[in-house]
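#dry-run=false #mode=assembly
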Amino acid sequence: MAMQHRAPRGTADILPSDQKYWRYIEGKARDLSRRFGYSRLDTPVFEDSGLFVRSVGEGTDIVEKEMYTFLDRGGDSNTLRPEGTAPVCRAYLEHGMQNLPQPVRMYYFCPVFRYERPQAGRYREHHQFGVEALGVGDPSVDAEVVELAWSLVSSLGLADTSLMVNSIGDRECRPAYIDKLKEHYTRSKGQLCRDCLDRLDRNPLRLLDCKQASCQGLGMEAPRSVDHLCEGCQDHWDSFQRYLDTMGLPYRIDHHLVRGLDYYTRTVFEIQPKEEGGQSTILGGGRYDGLIEQIGGKPTPGIGFATGMERLVLNLKRQEVPVPDEPSPDYMVISAGDGARDAALDLAARMRRSGAGAILSTAGRALRGQLRQANALGVRYALILGDDEISRGEVTVRDMSSSEQEAVSVDSFLEKLDEGR
RNA sequence: GUGAGCGUAGCCAAGGGGUCCAAGGCGCCUGACUGUGGCUCAGGAGAUCGUGGGUUCGAAUCCCACCGCUCACCCCA
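#status=ok
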């Protein structure tokens, strides 16, 4: 279609017909967050570019080629938020939340921006719901966050999802592990795909989740991060699993699970649907004990996760999960004849003032057409006003499903509306 | 950034050089003795056939370029 303007590549309008999915997810996420003691935090759509460079990591794809960065008129470099965690940590520091009872539990809904080639489940602007628990490093917090994540996905009614967890160690033990990993892959360099040759020095952890058959073979025999944890990480990992067991969460350990952002430490986890699609992960998170320090705070532990709203919607639709419709008004006010237009406007206005929902039918259409409209919009009652009704101070209330109708006085109709609430 | 597929009305879609100033369906609007919907019937509006160039007497149909969309890789929610 040749159009002057269309939504930019990788962005999308969320149409009225799709809103029910979004409101459904938001409702569940908000309720759960509250139940777990999380409070909402909103941060700006853009931040100082340095925040993301320092937190997400200089060598990551996000920072290297995916950020929407612009200079403002004052010459400052700003970046449209490419992820949600760093801004939350920034806000934690900026507002002295270290002085609140720890951990500080917060959640957010926000758009995030990454300049990538769009495909199924991946967009340049997408929306995330996420939670963060800051200030406490105890593994029980990890377990709590994972439970929240799992509860969310289950409460949405998504079936056949799996919860994968892993520990990737911390600054103390990870470097040694990565050396082992490199060693392992270097020995069989010849079998590596081109991308993996690249990963070997850029991001060795990612070698583990390469999808190429030859690399996967190597991955099977690769050293596991959980076998190379330092004492602290080992204890953390053991307790974390025990807590998950205690809560009966159906997790699986995935030794190849790593996350793409530099700031992750120890616990990492993901939830994915069973069907293997390209962009399948619907939720991902982990611990980031070094992040706050990286952006200028005192060493402060933290853990959280984010979900992709678009991916959740995609899966809700795919699985045909029944999602409640958005409520719409019960009444449409119809005027038979032009003379009744004023009375119709007046009735609709009075109904709305008393809190009821009333749609005005389109002026100038025949009664038939107006009823057709009422039918198409699915309202419960049509309120018909014509000369007859007006002269008697009445309105004809037609039940659209039973086709029964009766004339009642406008006053008593409005009174009943009031009583109804 | 790389690779593949696709672009005909709001949506689905036929047509693959002349009979196409483009079929059909959904949706939308109107009407069926001028106050009554959902079914049916009739009518109507809506398309620079993605854009530009080329081949040809003639192009929605063939060729080229560009743009856009989709999917996959990379990476991630």
